[in-house]
Write a structure and sequence with these properties.
With 88 residues, the chain is an alpha+beta fold. It is built from two helices and nine strands. The protein has a single domain, classed as Ubiquitin-like (UB roll), CATH 3.10.20.30.
């Protein structure tokens, strides 16, 4: 699995991209848990409520789909972690 970080998350992660090897698909909730353990500074930006990562802090995107905590990701996926986006 390829994870791409956008600022400010790339600064916290120490780079713009990391690769995780997943033996089986996991939920986004499990992915966040793993990222929080491996990159502790990310913890303060993730507020989980219900089945969604609250967009006030971080948005997880696969393609053009904003992922919820119970969505599943696999080894071949590319996900992006970016700050909230607002339009005007």
């Amino acid at each position: 699995m390829q994870i791409r970080f956008f600022k400010p998350f790339s600064e916290l992660a120490g780079g713009e991209e990391i690769r995780l090897v997943l033996e089986n698909p996991i939920s986004v909730r499990e992915l966040w848990g793993r990222l929080e353990r491996e990159i502790p500074p990310l913890q303060r930006f993730v507020k989980k409520e219900g089945d969604e990562v609250q967009s006030f802090f971080a948005v997880i995107v696969r393609g053009d789909e904003i992922l919820k905590l119970d969505d599943t990701v696999g080894n071949e996926d590319v996900v992006k972690i970016l700050p909230p986006i607002s339009g005007g």
